Predict the structure.
Amino acid sequence: MPNELLLAGSVLLIYGAVLASYRIFGKTGLYAMTMAATILANVEVLILIEGFGMEQTLGNVMFASTYLITDILSENEGKKSASRAVWLGVFAAVIMILFTQYWLLYTPAEGDWAFAHITAIFSTTPRMLLASFVGYVVSQRFDVWLYHRWWAFTTRKTGDSKGYLWLRNNGSTLISQILNTVLFTLLAFAGWYDTQTLLSVMMTSYLIFIFTSLIDTPVVYLARAMKQKGVIQD
């Protein structure tokens, strides 16, 4: 199956999972999705693929879903809930690194076949998670702050607290993703890839984030409509 089709399918699958978790479990479901997405994105990012004529790492769509989640929480549940999701994502990453590094301390049995593969994957985890910590915390905290700044600005200018959702959604995510893209790429891959590849990864990652941010706007509107209709479970 072509990578392009798989990438498009991942957007539908991941964003659909965000809405389903919110519909069934309320904001608790979004907290769970944040933690799951943080862990999965840190594993996926180790895979480099080609798609839509670009060389890119996996994990971009999965990681972008955490911004979708904080925007939904900011819109429907408040700034405190969005900030809580950010710190739950950090907690999930800490737990991941502690346990994956602990696994590597074991001596495998002679008949073991998995340990070498586990080692190859998770021996890179500390650097990836450090890069993820810095990029995630800085950009997500900034995203939540900027979302509410945009909200206050448009409300003050128009008197409509419900309007311009598209502006606060994209205006916060697209700017904060610049911070995340630069910080994560440099901290995670500097020394592994040459400068041209690093710039390519930054550009392709940000292009993907632009696409995912624009695509997730209708999802935020749908999540708000679900909340207003009272179909979200608490």
